[in-house]
Amino acid sequence: MLAKRFVVPFAVATLGTGAAVFGVLHADAAEAATCAVTYTVTSQWNSGFTGDVKVRNTGSSVVDGWTLGFAFPSGQTLASGWNGTWTQSGTRVTVTDAGWNKSIAAGGTVAVGFTGAWSGSNAVPSAFTLNGVTCGATATATTSPAVTRTATATPTATKTATATPSATVTKGAENCTDYAALLRGKYWINNNVWGKADGTGSQCVWENGLTGDNLSWGTSWTWSGDPTKVKSYAGAVLGWHWGWKATGTGLPIPLSAGKNVRTSWNFAVTAKTATIMNVSYDLWLHSTGTADWQDQPTDEVMVWLYRSGGAGPVGTKQATVTVGGTTWDLYKGDIGWTVYSFVRTSNTTSADLNLTDFTDHLAGRGWLDKTKYLSSVQAGTEVFTGSGRLDTSAYSVKIS
Fold it and tell me: What is the pLDDT of residues 283-336, one digit of tens each?
């Protein structure tokens, strides 16, 4: 989340109806070099992509002021960047420190990020320089996370939801392809494995059909690795997710319009092993009503309905509040955009909410400007570790 929330592995991943090869370049320092660079394509779609670049000072003295240089090898163009001043001339890209991050201690790292456009192919750069010194480069198939979430407790006893999916639901075919997109009406199911690099495992999704506004879907997962870092967020998406895949979503809408965003969700969680995870809504907001793939969000609002194993949100607890007749612990954090998390003080597997109540609460605190646009409503599972399954018998979002 420091730059972008989503990481794509070095593999062919299905995005909508197309496929693209994503990659990572890890530049290990040459013997005489004093820098090492990790270049990661963190997401790619249609003609756009986002990237992370981490620069490590492998020398014995502090770097005080830096300029990073590299060349796009296959005609890519820079759209925007952060944590530095980004420019492009021809194929050459230059990034100068932002002032506050100009000092890189010996052994220290600075991270920058960008969005860009590509066509044909999206090959990774082959060489980098730091203040004119070449960093030795070797292409590898490793990835690094764009963002982490931190669990606030160690795993506890496994919890299993008592609700079960409707007996009339027939499970659809599984799709276990990373970042698979299953479109159904105004929704799509995203097999999002953005933190996969921090563990070992896999995730599958399926959709069982749409009746009116009600979508039935599910996901299963098995993840091991760092218990403090999220591996995946399989979810049902309405609206934006670094681009658009469906029409008729009713989004984006300005918060100032005062529209209701009513949602219902009935699900069952089956934990096969001790599992650190949560089931939550994820709302994304922008300062523009025309957000597309290149537009970073300004705010993220999460509403946690269920959690197990001590999973905790980004940021620090601000208050315990009552919203929609239910008590929530409210957290606030910053990962390059502001993240607000409403964590239900007791688990539930059934929700009937007006999500506008949550954005109104934040606006009433003076934290969220009502000129912002709600671009996306998502509902899914953040999984840290463990093996389990979520079955949604009915999920809907209605904007009025």
Answer: 999 999 999 988 999 999 999 999 999 999 999 999 999 999 999 999 999 988
Taking the CA of residue 42 as centre, how many other CA atoms within 13 Å lie in the half-sphere pointing to its CB?
27
pLDDT digits (tens, 9 = 90+) for 180-211: 999 999 999 999 999 999 999 999 999 999 99
pTM score of the predicted model = 0.62
Residue whose structure tokens are 């469906």: 246
Write out pLDDT tens, residues 224-253.
Answer: 999 989 999 999 999 999 999 999 999 999
**5-14, 33-42, 87-96, 385-394: range with lowest mean pLDDT:** 5-14
Domains of the chain: 12-139 (2.60.40.290), 181-399 (2.60.120.180)
Written as one letter, the residue type at 252 is P
